[in-house]
Amino acid sequence: MGDQKLAGELNHGMDTLKQVSVLRVRDGQSISAHDVIAVEVPVALEYNGISHVVMLASPADLDDFALGFSLSEGIIAQSSELYGCEAELTHEGWLLHLDIASERFAALKERRRNLAGRTGCGLCGTESLSQVARCSTTIVHRHHVAEDAVLNGMRAMHHLQPMQRLSGATHAAAWMNAQGQVELVREDVGRHNALDKLIGVLAKQKQDFSTGVLLITSRASYEMVQKAAIMNIGVVAAISAPTSFAVELADHAGVTLMGFMRDQSYVVYTHADRLDRNDLSNQV
Questions:
Q1: Nearest to 161 by CA among 16, 8, 52
Q2: 135 counts as catalytic
Q3: Which domains, from first to last, does the chain contain?
Q4: What three-state secondary structure class fits 243?
Q5: Selected catalytic residue, list 85, 121, 124, 135
Q6: Model's pTM, two decimal places?
Q7: Tens digits of per-residue pLDDT, 145-181?
Q8: Are 255 and 235 in contact (CB under 8 A)?
């Protein structure tokens, strides 16, 4: 990539990408070169003046992250219960000051959670086993989605990840409508953060979460499925594998869980009835 083009794309990436000097070695030969790395910073969320959680995240779409995290973690039940979000850049990282409804803040204090987040960590600070399974509702809607739509959506998402293309270090979460059109993508160094950012922007747009498909570039972990189920998302398609805990939750919560998404292949782990297949002859 030419220096001028690289500089332009780095500028477009704002503070999420950084150019560094590296020693590149190939076949025993070494050269001095430049590489692009994803920026990762501490992001603290403070609710009504009380510190709640510190995550490591990409410093972009932080207002989406604040709303999505608050919804998917059950801190608030609807967007209107978040009255405001002010982002402050400090020497240590970003501090998000969130103002939420008083009854929600009282419930949050009762949970007594003190998360110390790390990239890819979804249960840090959970005090007891009973706090792990927070999704007690079951998705009952059965909006069908075509097999081709999901496959096309995964292919389209691959071209909508500029941070990943330049750095190779980020995950993405995408929202696809029932026709297979990828409408929104959010990227982050953490897969949970990318999903929370996507949930946040969709909530701002008052999206009906029951009508589309969640596409993710990571494994389908328990926390990812849980966040989807809490938001009433009925179909989750992952590029990698699910865990046993995730499959159990998806089955219980009524989520159609797909994994190992490739060009023309995939595995359906739960609730395959939502998927309209081109060829039904091989169903078991």
A1: 16
A2: no
A3: 3-38 (no CATH), 41-131 (3.10.20.10), 145-276 (3.40.140.10)
A4: coil
A5: 121
A6: 0.87
A7: 999 999 999 999 989 999 999 999 999 999 999 888 9
A8: yes
